Amino acid sequence: MKWIFKEPKNVAVFTSRLILDDKDWVYYVSHDEEDGAWQFHPSSGFTPEQDARVVSLQTMCKIEPRIFELSDLPLGWCAWRETKDGI
Question: What's this model's pTM, rounded to 2 decimal places?
């Protein structure tokens, strides 16, 4: 798939061990206004001190390809879905 994000594939993003270990799914995404960082949160919530992980944006897109739908999410905005298969 063509890379459509403004950020490079290897930009660091924040996520959870739960998502990386396939124990939960991406429920909430934020594109932080302060620094442009992307965050991908699980549905069950997590404790940053114990569960936070840093990976590339490309890695997150491989885990959850629907993230490409958010490539134009403006700074300071967020998106979420109520179910794993939801829009």
Answer: 0.92
